[in-house]
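Lab notebook, design round three. We kept the backbone fixed and only want residue identities now. Task for the bench partner: fill in a sequence for the structure below.
Input structure tokens:
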């Protein structure tokens, strides 16, 4: 059986009457068959809002039987509708702070405008049939609209998700929309919008939401609206539009209309005709051929059918203008449509569309007292509404008359036997308000909307059957705004006005923009800015106005403040004017199924929310309160009576408090002063200025029997402290379906505004109660206020509890109005990184898919991202939860969500979700204020609040404050859930010391923020906590070492290293110390540290680092050298330098590498010379040994097997002389690299022999000679190279001559003054000559080498070379001549040599004495001479050779003759000597 829940708005009338039930049958009615209740369940009710009500849905039968006359006392769920409302409601304004983006569509049927036609603005709405079902796509989804002139604005909204493309604005050219002219009907696959203007009717067919989505389990936060593709429709299509005939068609005197869809899908429009009948326009089914049909229902039961056009001779019968319908309603029953017409002659007529007959006429003046004067007048203000429930069909009629009005509620019944219809009168309700804007009917209640003289909306609702006292229930509507603002003296007027104007839910963006445009006299440059931009524009406009009004350059602060107040108040008045225009009420929108009630206004809509009992008691006036209101809090009638009297006292105190007094309490709480002190001060003001109120309060307090108990009851009801466990997890499909439940911006606004309203109301209750308690304390024992000891209870218990509630609700109120800060993406990423350090990012509390962009409040953001999911989880775990009911009850769900959200915001609850959310979403300013407000009085989660405050200080750069907060929070570790979750670890040993684990988390956070100084301070504290836990101590000392090192405190780092109890960590720290100090070039500190018991480790670390890193970018070898020298270990130092030099030679083939190598060998030589010669040696690994880098992967062969590690057992001893040789070789390589940089890569690994060749090649002959002498190598390559260069210079041109000077100047040439004609060639020959003179060999091999080189290239021998060689080896020269076939030169040499032997020029051959008997024997190279003669004689035809041969033979003959003579003389001489 369906559930109907209603909402209503109204003022309480001054008189309440109820008439007895009467029945008046004025005309016979045809019989209708009964229908079962099951056939009525599909009924869908759509309420028009200005002149009609249409009940439409599946085809049902008439449940209008005589049994309906006997209604049960309650009607199922409908009978409890008023109970769920807690008797009164309050209004929650819903508007977007940013302007709506409307899509504009034009509908032009080519009609001409009718002058003088003007209708009032109107509004209405539509709820989907399944909007109350939890599993439906249309859950919590509805459409509402407003009309103004020729413009219709349609908007679809959902409480679950934000709809895209959900707004559209249609302009009907030259037409005016009827105030009741928009109707929406729903079928299983379509949503049809039927629109009536004064000249046309239109049909717009849209897809049903269930057809737009594949699945009903919607999990996305944004879905498409049914208006998404409305722009693609053709509004001029003749099949979906029709022009009303202009002569005898629609009556401009009445705006009544109704529509429905029949079973064939045809759209039917009913409206008042000019003749007083009902004009019906029937459009064919969508996408089918056919023409529109017009017909008219008249009192004579004649139906005129016109297929095209309107007959000018229509039958008028006996109808007159008094029969004109002013309100129409349609009810579909089986295959017929009942049309109810409330006419201006005060009669209700019932028409059958199927039979075209009037079934019933009821004179409603019968139910109206003193109606004689009204019988001959007409009224256009009557209204008609329909409602249906399982027990029958109900009609509510509003009868309008001057200065008063009344509601009459009837039930339509039928008598099967007599075939008659009748109205069963249920009740009549009177009121004194004249201007009724709209009313709605549910199966149990009437909701009414009035507009008072100040254009404020007044809403009331009443149960029309079960309200014997005629008491209308209150709805507390929102006033537009305060006409004047109270600005404290200590507040800047600009800040006060801006804070008030841009407070959430106070002024719409449209009102502010319009006011700004008027204030700036039509500034067109302001085009729909956002709220932040609008705030800047407003500030700029007002400030400019102030400056333009000032004529003096200097004026006092008081004058400037007056100017500010003047101009800001002017702008505020403009805003107030436009906000009032937008807040003009137009209609009520009631959903009887879900109990949702909306108030539709000109510029926005608002929702009604149920007041809880405490709020209802405080807000309601005395005449609206009954004892049963209090009985819901207690079963004791005496306690209920005391509670009633206490609330009266509170209300009296609240009415007496002025703005200044109220500001005093708020300022005290905001400034963290005790509220009870402010209450005492306010009480003093009250006692001094209002004696009458004082006496009245004393009188009322005397009537309270037990004030202590009733105050405790009140405090207990307002205290939100409770358990907030999430409960069991629901099945996946259910949880998926409610993922977006109440998650749209609209729902967020409703729930959060409800919490704000509750916090405001209860703050006032607690404030007034605290003042009243101070009054009781002031009165003391002078009055009988209950049992003994009450004053002590008041002073020690009740006042502190009340003061606590004042502060608590103040914080909730502040949070509900605190705007969320926009968070850039980079800040959000930085925050997530910090939370990941704390290992909190896996919590959905701290994560969001998109950054905060504003301008919602922090409570709205909290509800959207965190609280809603927790609340839904809790509600699903409760058996009696509203989510576990067959239909969604908006009132129950709203109360549940708001109450739970208030609990999550309640500071004294154990839940820390709100503060954790503020931290996780970068709302640091709001979080600091939140912690500040709670600091003096909230004793729950003290440590957690200090922790999140420290996080705020970290972000704002106040590190020392953050550290203080973190240290304070440590005391609460193990006692608060948030801190316990922060330190959760899997290691049981680590969990044994939770405070140390907390310190570790904070240390990681500080490290992530790069605050080493703070890390050191906190780590020192943690060390004292760790005590004897060596693992934790090792970790802490490692952190201390690291950050001392980062700060450049090398000695403190070393000290912390030595304190580390873990040897492996100590070694790691030592390694890091070496590396960092080396990179910083702080080698002095590194070398001078004592390294007690760490000497070998340091050496090993430096050696491993030296062998593992790049030699040119790190100086670990030099560090190790300095380390050994510092400790006078010179052999080790020399070894290090020798190894460094060896590696440089192998790995660094560059000029810098060679220079470093030379320096290394030189330093190594110096080290070995510092020790005694017998110890001046070092050990060198044999050739082939390799240095394995630490951590390198094992080597494998081509088969994948591990290769055997090469073990080096043989060692070589490197003595000082060997090192000196290496130094010479290295220095020679460096010389070569400097002279020819291209050869540096080759020279780096060249041996001594290879270096000689390279040096000769580039002309460094002196260096080559020195290298050969050092390594005892032959000089032949040098002489050959130099000879070759001389040959090349002699044969080449000037370019080679100039280049030769480059290498010539690198060699030491004999200091002979060169003439101007001296050339590079001459200098080269001179260098060669000097080398031959300087480096002589016993066998004259160098001369022979040179001559051989020259002759091999065909270069004639220079005379100086011949002369030089003749003196040392004439035979060798002769052999060279013979080898190169220089016969003539050979003959000349032999002849010259023979002459020298015979005394002619012996000095040229270095012959001391020529051939004589007394001289030493001489010799001739006869073998070479014989070879020469043989060569000369081989070619007899060569006359020159023959001549030379003869000459040589002749000379030899003379020589032989001289030899014989000399031999004879020598023999004679020897004989003479012997004889002597």
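Proposed sequence:
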């Amino acid at each position: 059986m369906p559930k109907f829940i209603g909402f209503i708005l109204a003022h309480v009338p001054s008189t309440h009457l109820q008439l007895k039930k009467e029945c008046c049958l004025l005309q016979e009615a045809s019989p209708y068959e009964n229908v079962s209740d099951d056939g009525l369940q599909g009924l869908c009710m759509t309420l028009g809002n200005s002149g009609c009500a249409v009940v439409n849905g599946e085809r049902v039968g008439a449940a209008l039987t005589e049994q309906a006359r006997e209604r049960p006392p309650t009607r199922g769920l409908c009978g409890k509708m008023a109970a769920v409302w807690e008797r009164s409601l309050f209004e929650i304004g819903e508007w977007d702070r940013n302007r709506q983006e409307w899509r504009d569509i034009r509908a032009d049927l080519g009609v001409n405008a009718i002058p003088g036609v003007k209708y009032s603005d109107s509004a209405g709405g539509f709820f989907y049939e399944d909007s109350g079902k939890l599993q439906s796509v249309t859950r919590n989804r509805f459409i509402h609209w407003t009309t103004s002139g020729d413009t219709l604005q349609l908007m679809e909204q959902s409480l679950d998700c934000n709809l895209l493309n959900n707004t559209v604005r249609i302009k009907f050219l030259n037409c005016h929309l009827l105030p009741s002219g928009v109707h929406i009907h729903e079928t299983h696959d379509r949503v049809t919008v039927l629109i009536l203007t004064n000249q046309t009717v239109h049909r717009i067919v849209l897809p049903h939401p269930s057809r737009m989505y594949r699945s009903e389990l919607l999990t996305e936060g944004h879905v498409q609206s049914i208006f998404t593709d409305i722009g693609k429709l053709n509004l001029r299509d003749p099949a979906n539009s029709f022009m009303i005939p202009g002569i005898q068609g629609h009556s401009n005197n009445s705006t009544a209309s109704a529509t429905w869809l029949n079973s064939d899908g045809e759209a039917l429009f009913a409206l008042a005709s000019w003749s007083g009948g009902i004009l019906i326009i029937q459009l064919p089914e969508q996408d089918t051929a056919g023409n529109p049909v017009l017909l008219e229902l008249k009192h004579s039961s004649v139906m005129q059918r016109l297929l095209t056009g309107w007959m000018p001779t229509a039958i008028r019968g006996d109808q007159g203008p008094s029969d004109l319908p002013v309100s129409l309603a349609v009810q579909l029953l089986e295959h017929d449509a009942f049309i109810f017409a409330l006419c201006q002659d005060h009669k209700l007529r019932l028409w059958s569309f199927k039979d075209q007959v009037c079934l019933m006429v009821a004179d409603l003046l019968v139910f109206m007292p003193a109606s004689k004067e009204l019988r001959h007048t007409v009224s256009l203000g009557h209204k008609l509404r329909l409602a249906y429930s399982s027990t029958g069909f109900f009609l509510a009629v509003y009868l309008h008359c001057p200065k008063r009005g009344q509601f009459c509620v009837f039930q339509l019944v039928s008598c099967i036997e007599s075939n008659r219809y009748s109205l069963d009168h249920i009740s009549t309700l009177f009121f004194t308000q004249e201007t009724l804007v709209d009313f709605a009917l549910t199966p149990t209640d009437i909701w009414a909307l009035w507009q008072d003289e100040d254009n404020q909306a007044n809403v009331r609702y009443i149960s029309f059957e079960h309200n014997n006292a005629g008491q209308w229930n209150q709805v507390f509507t929102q006033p537009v705004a305060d006409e004047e603002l109270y600005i404290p003296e200590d507040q800047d007027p600009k800040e006060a006005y801006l804070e008030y104007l841009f407070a959430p839910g106070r002024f719409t963006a449209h009102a502010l923009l319009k006011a700004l445009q008027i204030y700036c006299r039509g500034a067109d440059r302001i085009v729909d800015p956002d709220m932040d931009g609008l705030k800047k524009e407003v500030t700029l406009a007002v400030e400019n106005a102030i400056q333009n009004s000032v004529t003096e350059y200097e004026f006092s602060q008081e004058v400037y403040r007056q100017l500010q107040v003047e101009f800001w108040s002017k702008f505020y008045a403009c805003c107030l004017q436009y906000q009032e225009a937008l807040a003009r009420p137009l209609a009520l929108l009631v959903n009887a199924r879900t109990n949702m009630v909306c108030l539709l206004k000109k510029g926005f809509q608002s929702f009604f929310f149920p007041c809880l009992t405490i709020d209802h008691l405080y807000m309601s006036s005395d005449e609206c309160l009954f004892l049963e209101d209090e009985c819901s809090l207690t079963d004791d009638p005496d306690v209920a009576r005391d509670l009633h009297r206490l609330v009266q006292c509170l209300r009296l105190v609240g009415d007496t408090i002025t703005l200044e007094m109220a500001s005093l309490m708020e300022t005290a709480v905001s400034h963290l002063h005790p509220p009870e002190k402010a209450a005492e001060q306010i009480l003093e003001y009250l006692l001094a200025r209002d004696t009458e109120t004082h006496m009245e309060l004393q009188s009322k307090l005397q009537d309270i029997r037990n004030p202590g108990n009733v105050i405790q009851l009140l405090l207990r009801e307002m205290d939100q402290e409770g358990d907030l466990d999430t409960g069991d997890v629901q099945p996946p499909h259910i949880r998926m379906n409610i993922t977006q439940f109440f998650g749209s911006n609209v729902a967020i606004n409703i729930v959060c505004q409800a919490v704000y309203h509750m916090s405001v109301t209860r703050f006032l209750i607690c404030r007034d109660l605290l003042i009243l308690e101070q009054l009781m304390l002031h009165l003391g024992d002078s009055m009988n206020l209950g049992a003994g000891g009450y004053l002590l209870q008041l002073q020690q218990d009740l006042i502190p509890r009340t003061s606590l509630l004042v502060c608590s609700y103040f914080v909730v109120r502040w949070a509900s109005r605190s705007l969320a800060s926009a968070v850039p993406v980079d800040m959000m990423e930085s925050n997530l990184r910090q939370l990941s350090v704390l290992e909190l990012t896996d919590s959905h509390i701290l994560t969001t898919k998109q950054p905060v962009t504003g301008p919602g409040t922090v409570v709205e953001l909290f509800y959207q991202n965190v609280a809603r999911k927790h609340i839904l989880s809790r509600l699903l775990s409760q058996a009696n939860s509203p989510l576990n009911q067959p239909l969604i009850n908006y009132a129950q769900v709203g109360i549940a969500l708001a109450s739970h959200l208030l609990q999550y915001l309640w500071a004294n609850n154990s839940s820390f979700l709100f503060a954790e959310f503020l931290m996780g979403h970068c709302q640091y300013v709001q979080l600091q204020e939140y912690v500040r407000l709670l600091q003096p009085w909230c004793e729950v989660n003290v440590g957690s609040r200090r922790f999140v405050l420290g996080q705020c200080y970290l972000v704002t750069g106040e590190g020392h404050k953050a550290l203080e907060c973190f240290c304070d929070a440590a005391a609460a570790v193990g006692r608060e859930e948030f801190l316990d979750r922060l330190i959760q670890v899997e290691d049981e040993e680590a969990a044994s010391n939770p405070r140390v684990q907390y310190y570790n988390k904070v240390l990681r956070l500080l490290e992530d923020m790069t605050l080493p100084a703070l890390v050191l301070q906190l780590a020192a504290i943690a060390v004292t906590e760790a005590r004897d836990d060596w693992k934790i101590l090792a970790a802490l000392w490692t952190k201390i070492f690291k950050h001392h090192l980062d700060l450049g405190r090398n000695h403190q780092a070393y000290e912390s290293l030595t304190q580390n109890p873990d040897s492996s960590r100590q070694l790691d720290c030592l390694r890091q110390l070496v590396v960092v100090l080396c990179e910083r070039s702080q080698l002095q500190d590194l070398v001078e540290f004592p390294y007690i018991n760490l000497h070998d480790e340091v050496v090993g670390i430096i050696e491993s680092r030296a062998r593992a890193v790049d030699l040119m970018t790190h100086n670990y070898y030099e560090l190790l050298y300095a380390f050994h020298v510092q400790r006078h270990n010179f052999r080790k130092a020399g070894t290090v330098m020798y190894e460094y030099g060896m590696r440089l030679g192998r790995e660094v083939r560059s000029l810098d590498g060679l220079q470093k190598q030379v320096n290394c060998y030189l330093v190594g030589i110096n080290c070995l010379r510092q020790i005694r010669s017998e110890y001046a040696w070092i050990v060198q690994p044999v050739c082939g040994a390799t240095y394995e880098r630490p951590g390198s992967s094992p080597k494998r062969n081509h088969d994948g097997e591990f290769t055997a590690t090469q073990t080096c057992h043989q060692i070589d001893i490197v003595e000082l002389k060997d090192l000196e040789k290496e130094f010479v070789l290295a220095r020679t390589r460096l010389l070569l690299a400097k002279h020819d940089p291209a050869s540096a890569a080759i020279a780096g690994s060249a041996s001594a022999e290879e270096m000689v060749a390279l040096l000769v090649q580039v002309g460094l002959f002196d260096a080559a000679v020195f290298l050969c002498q050092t390594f005892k190598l032959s000089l032949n390559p040098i002489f050959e190279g130099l000879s070759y260069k001389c040959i090349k210079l002699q044969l080449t041109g000037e370019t080679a001559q100039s280049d030769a000077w480059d290498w010539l100047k690198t060699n030491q040439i004999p200091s002979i003054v060169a003439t101007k004609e001296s050339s590079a060639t001459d200098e080269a020959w001179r260098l060669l000559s000097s080398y031959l003179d300087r480096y002589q060999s016993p066998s004259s091999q160098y001369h022979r080498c040179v001559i051989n080189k020259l002759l091999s290239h065909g270069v004639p021998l220079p005379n100086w070379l011949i002369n030089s060689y003749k003196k040392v080896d004439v035979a060798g020269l002769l052999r060279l001549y013979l080898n190169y076939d220089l016969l003539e030169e050979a003959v000349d040499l032999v002849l010259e040599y023979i002459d020298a032997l015979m005394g002619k020029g012996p000095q040229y051959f270095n012959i001391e004495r020529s051939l004589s008997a007394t001289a030493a024997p001489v010799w001739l190279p006869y073998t070479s001479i014989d070879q020469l003669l043989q060569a000369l004689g081989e070619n007899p035809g060569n006359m020159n050779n023959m001549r030379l041969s003869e000459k040589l033979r002749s000379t030899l003959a003379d020589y032989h003759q001289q030899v014989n003579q000399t031999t004879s003389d020598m023999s004679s001489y020897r004989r003479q000597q012997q004889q002597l």
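Keep this in mind before ordering anything: The two ends are 175 Å apart (CA to CA).
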